[in-house]
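Lab manual, section 2.4: Encoding a predicted structure.

Procedure: take the sequence of the chain (217 residues), apply the prediction step described in section 2.3, and record the output as structure tokens. A sample record is shown.
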Amino acid sequence: MAGFADVSLGDFLEKLATPVPTPGGGTASAVAGAMAAALLGMAASVSLRKRPGEGALGEAAARAAELRRGLLELARADTEAYEAVMRAYGLPRGTPEEAEARRTAIQRALREAARVPLRTAELALEVLELAVKARDAIPEAIVSDLLVAVRLAHAAVKGGLCNVDINCRSLKDEGARAEFASRRKRIETRARKLLDQFTEAEERLASWLGEEDSNLH
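Recorded output:
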């Protein structure tokens, strides 16, 4: 598949809606992460005009651009990784040798199919880290953009981890499973802690509803 940077949004959504396995949730997660990085970069760049000396904003804008490109690349890689899994399952298994070669190919493909969304979750987690660093320098007028970036990044983390889980369920390599599990737990725990740091900003944004209605949790 062509790089996702070169595909229109409409074309991507058409492909996503097609009743075939790819592109699927892992690719969608990476695209959500790229959108989060783009929004964070925009918020940081706009804020930088008002505070040109704010180092956290410059860092966030520059790194967000890198993360956006990286996540778009992972969108392509995720589709390719799962297509490799499907090809492996389609290999012949009529002889013992063929069956063994098929099992080996499936396990190799599953490791890659778990590795790619794990990397998606890691990069999306970094978007959340950047959002925390830039948060206090983002003016209230565009805090909604920051919060949307945060929610998209967290969705990308969770979506990536769901795809790690589905592939690891069939992975037989205990060493690989243990490594994926350790990294996965760390990412999920850290992402929740970072998301919680924006609860107050979300409640403040919804304060126009009134004291009783503004608690959305």
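Check your result against the sample. The chain has one domain: 20-209.
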